[in-house]
Amino acid sequence: MTLEPQGRSLSDFTVELDVYSGPYEWLLALILKDELEIFEIPLRELVESYIGERERDPTNGLERDTDFAGSASALVLLKSRTLSPAIDAETEGDEDEPLSPEVLAERLTEYLKIRRAAEHLRERFAANAGYYPSAHTVPPRPGHLRVKPERVSLAARRAFSRLIEPPVRHLGPITVTLQELAGMIRTALATGPISYEILTRDMDRLNRAVAFAAALSLAQEGSLTLAQTEPLGPLTLEPTA
Amino acid sequence: MSEKKPRPEHLIEAVLLVSATPISPPDLSSATGLSKEEMGSALENLAERYAPETSGIVLRNVAGGYQLSTNPGCSGAVERFREEARPAPLSNAAHEVLACALYLGPLTRGAISRVRGVNSDAVVRNLLERGLLIEVGTDYEAPGSPALLGVTDEFLAATGSSSTDEFPPLGSLVTPEELSRVHERLTSAATPPEDAGDTP
After folding, report:
1. Residue of higher predicted confidence among A92 and B143
2. For domain A178-239, is the CATH number 2.40.50.870?
3. Among residues B119, B123, B167, B197, which is most buried (max CB within 10 A)?
């Protein structure tokens, strides 16, 4: 994906947004360098601004439209990716199931409250803007660092408490081992070469993956050779002489 | 010649002048050697002297301490002198993330994203850089032990609050009528019309 216009047809297009004012090409460069957050850019205003500019100066219309459409659609894609909820381990798999009206109502109610709280915060930020404290910053002195007591107690709890076992809820029980599958491969090879596909035909994904690892391990120690005529083609396990 | 002992107001004034961050009453007391009563009385006098109506400098009680700041009415002159514009206002997304951290925190980035329904990582990063959010702990129960986020003293100062208790309860920000409207809409959307299936 590229945000850079193909030519220089947009070089004289400047934008005026709350978060940025200047050449459009620089805006794209700042977004690519992560110096400007894509979620802060109102794309609708950007498009309206371009349409206004286009009406004022219709020269090179097709070339400019093409360049703008290309970069603007890349911005839309980038923004939608940035805003898409991240898959997390706790909810993975559950999200495909439709939410019950009760759960949906609960979530919307919670979000509505947060939305109102955000509006309240906006007013408080606005009402308290323009206060400038003393510019005199006292450098921290050894032995006189300002540390809040609760931070000290938190650090002490961490330092002196027993290490908490990492959560393993997401890990399943061990059902297959490399040794077991290596033994199975050795037995199969006793009658001659065998195709990996046939060997793993009745296995699940986990067993197939472990069988592949076992075959690699046996090949490395010289117990068998792996033959494959073309990339991603059928794999044959052959016993070494 | 004996040196005249400074008044409590003068001592507090001098210490506040050289601090860029709010100073808590215990720190003020420790620096000035004043008792709690002397401090209380002196701070009342200073609040009158540095009231917004009478001075270009104001005394603020924010983030659990006291701070001398310029009067917002004079901010234009200050900004021209410092040759810097006022920081751009925060986006709606940033206010929502801060509201999550304030009312539901400490909580993880993932929890914030779940409440808002959209990925909030970029907004969180921006707020951490601006010093309005801070990592206050770790959620050891969650896979990967993600950091827990909370609001900072800078946040309290920027919202003119002495502590997080000064904010209205979350439940009071939404009226029962609004909540019942949400439930009604969802119920009506979830219930199929009575004659559904009768029409061809």
Report:
1. B143
2. no
3. B123
Neighbouring C-alpha atoms within 13 Å toward the C-beta of B136: 17
- In this structure, how many other beta carbons lie within 10 angstroms of the beta carbon of residue B135? 13
Domain boundaries, chain A: 14-83, 178-239
Full set of structural domains in chain B with CATH? 8-79 (1.10.10.10), 92-187 (1.10.10.10)
Residue B124: C-alpha distances to residues A231, B120, B163 (Å): 44, 6, 21
Q: Which residues pair with A224 in a beta bridge?
A: A239
In this structure, how many other beta carbons lie within 10 angstroms of the beta carbon of residue A137? Answer: 11
Q: Spell out where A127-220 has E strands.
A: 194-195
Task: Convert the pLDDT of each residue in A170-213 to its tens digit.
Answer: 777 778 888 999 999 999 999 899 999 999 988 888 889 999 99
Q: Confidence class of residue A89 from pLDDT cuts 50, 70 and 90? A: very low
Burial class for A10, CB neighbours closer than 10 Å (0-12, 13-18, 19+): buried
pLDDT digits (tens, 9 = 90+) for B152-200: 999 999 999 999 999 999 989 888 888 888 777 777 766 655 544 443 3
Whether the complex's predicted ipTM is more than 0.95 is answered with no
CA R_g for chain A: 31
Instruction: Check CB contact under 8 Å for A120 and B58.
Output: no
B132 has a pLDDT exceeding 90: yes
Contacts of residue B120, defined as CB under 8 A and 6 or more positions apart, other chains included, come to B93, B97, B109, B112, B113
DSSP result, B92-109: HHHHHHHHHHHHH-SB-H
| Residue whose tokens read 């009385």 | B41
* Helix residue spans in A35-148 (DSSP H): 43-56, 61-83, 101-127
Distance (Å) from the C-alpha of residue B1 to the closest C-alpha of chain A? 33
Q: Do B44 and B59 form a contact (C-beta atoms < 8 A)? A: no
Q: Closest partner residue to A134 among B19, B116, B179, by Cβ?
A: B19
State the amino acid at position A168 in one-letter form: V
State which amino acid sits at residue B128: L
Residue A26 in contact with partner chain B when CB distance is under 8 A = no
Q: Count CB-CB contacts under 10 A for residue A208.
A: 17
The token pair at A224 is: 């068998």
The more confidently predicted of residues A164 and A213 is A213
Residue identified by tokens 């309005």 is B132
> Which of B114, B127, B161, B188 is the best substitution to test chain A (most A C-beta atoms within 10 A)?
B114
Residue B89 dihedral angles phi and psi, to the nearest 5°: -60, 155
With CA atoms as reference, the chain B residue closest to A19 would be: B88
